[in-house]
Amino acid sequence: MALQAATSFLPSALSARKEGAVKDSSFLGVRLADGGVKLETSALGMRTKRVSTSVAIRAQTAAVSSPSVASASPSGKKTLRKGVAVITGASSGLGLATAKALAETGKWHVIMACRDFLKASRAAKAAGMDKDSYTIVHLDLASLDSVRQFVKNVRQLEMPIDVVVCNAAVYQPTAKEPSYTADGFEMSVGVNHLGHFLLARELLEDLKSSDYPSKRLIIVGSITGNTNTLAGNVPPKANLGDLRGLAGGLNGVGSSVMIDGGEFDGAKAYKDSKVCNMLTMQEFHRRYHEETGVTFASLYPGCIATTGLFREHIPLFRLLFPPFQKYITKGYVSEDEAGKRLAQVVSEPSLTKSGVYWSWNKNSASFENQLSEEASDAEKAKKLWEISEKLVGLA
Ligand code: NDP
Ligand code: PMR
């Protein structure tokens, strides 16, 4: 299924074909050999190898495939290789702005992990991103199979993975009925939390083996999941309760579709998912920071009132929300500015502290923010971790 999805968006960057189904594959730069697939990438400076799966990849890897983290320049000075950052949901809004900000530095190669290849490709071009600064790889967080396939696919790129940014999200404030992921989880928590949970757990191995000086896993949070703020007190408020709905599978069959076991509410499901994101970051920190040296961080980038996140909201909301945030709450931030903020969390040497939820003040200076009582509850984080790993098949 994942392959079928993958074949529908083909590639300037990554291509997939079912074995035996390839007739004329020359335009893909792929030849079948001994039932496997040969990667034709020598022109890009990438090692050519035979792979046993049916996925073939062409990627712009020349700048990052160097085996060692620092190499000597002609002047004898050591230079750091490009960092490689995976960003989910990089086809619009914050993810795209961050990809652009990183690419523009010339120091980063971005793996844009997106569910819609064409949209991502057009967005990267429209943003003026240099074609050598990114690779688009298909990822649909609403399917655990797709997450697992994505992990296989990025590994075949043979690039190191130095930073992972869990950014993608859906928000369904006007939905009357729940919708579900391929695995039967309520959509907002399924995509925003469970899909990312599996992805982050899998890619931790890759982060561990990266030789980059500062390796980071970032999970985007939000103010609206934090009930210690005015924004977090706008109903419906986030509340995971005792996680009985999540423990029941969040499928609406044997259990509620809401984490706390209540009635479906799309806006609450989103805010609950953001609490999960912030709790997960802290649990990662507690379990893995010392052992791996990876920095785990979350953030609230500001209110980016113009993004696609509000696409399902009523038109009046979409009209009034940006001026309301700009002139009344003054919480508004442009996509460009928010992208620069997240790019700082990816790459600034001063933001290496692990376990932190970053925010920015009126002068756009970063600071360590306080999470709400629930979003910093260590016991809840542990319980959330244990239930989530069962749901995604890791335990
Ligand atoms: P956008 O809707 O612009 O971006 C969301 C991205 O997630 C899109 O690229 C979208 O893909 C992708 N996505 C959605 N579903 C899936 C899926 N199933 N699989 C893979 N990708 C998917 O919203 P924002 O940029 O505003 O949101 C980005 C992050 O910022 C979110 O985590 C959000 O919670 C957070 N945030 C946003 C704030 C705001 O004010 N906007 C404030 C605080 C936090 P596609 O393009 O194909 O739809
Ligand atoms: Mg909010 C300082 C006040 C502040 C800030 C920073 C936000 C951010 N909001 C604030 C206040 C208020 N909001 C107030 C007083 C109201 C009542 C009028 C209000 C309402 C409101 C709505 C209906 N706000 C919203 C919504 C949404 O649908 C958005 C949401 O909850 O999405 C999940 C939203 C947001 N307000 C924010 C931010 C950042 C959001 C959206 C994004 C998010 O958390 O991801």
From TrEMBL:
CDD domains: LPOR_like_SDR_c_like. It holds the Pfam family adh_short. GO terms for biological process: chlorophyll biosynthetic process; photosynthesis. GO terms for molecular function: protochlorophyllide reductase activity. Keywords: Chlorophyll biosynthesis, Chloroplast, NADP, Oxidoreductase, Photosynthesis, Plastid, Transit peptide. The keyword Chloroplast applies. It catalyses: chlorophyllide a + NADP(+) = protochlorophyllide a + NADPH + H(+). Phototransformation of protochlorophyllide (Pchlide) to chlorophyllide (Chlide). Belongs to the short-chain dehydrogenases/reductases (SDR) family. POR subfamily. This is NADPH-protochlorophyllide oxidoreductase.
